[in-house]
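> forwarded from #structure-qc
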């Protein structure tokens, strides 16, 4: 009987010590900052295809990962870029615009649809 009590106290002590020595789990993912710039300002920002509520210039706190960033502004075009957001660091992306030539805008009710019309080119 005394042997069982000693064994129980020893096992309980080992479990307690193991729990105290383990590293605490951080449930929060590592974060970094993404700063999106464009010239002219006021471009819509897409992060991994999802439209954000901010327009350029803007700053986002994101999980550490790789993202595809695209901006859109009427009459301009820019290629999407892959950006790596690092832990506790500002990652700045400055997207360079290409002006669209032969740009035709059709407006229907409240939707604005940009159309690139190659018929105008010689």
């Amino acid at each position: 009987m005394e042997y069982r009590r000693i064994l129980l106290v020893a096992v309980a002590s080992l479990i307690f010590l193991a729990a105290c020595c383990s590293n605490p789990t951080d449930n929060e993912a590592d974060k970094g900052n993404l700063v999106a710039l464009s010239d002219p300002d006021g471009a819509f920002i897409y992060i991994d295809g999802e439209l954000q509520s901010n327009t350029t210039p803007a700053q986002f706190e994101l999980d550490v990962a790789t993202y595809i960033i695209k901006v859109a502004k009427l009459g301009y075009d820019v290629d999407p870029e892959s950006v790596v957001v690092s832990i506790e660091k500002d990652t700045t992306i400055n997207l360079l615009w290409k002006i669209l030539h032969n740009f035709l805008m059709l407006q229907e009710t409240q939707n604005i649809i940009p159309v690139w019309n190659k018929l105008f080119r010689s």
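QC bot note: Residues 104-122 have pLDDT under 50 and may be disordered. The longest helix spans residues 2-21.
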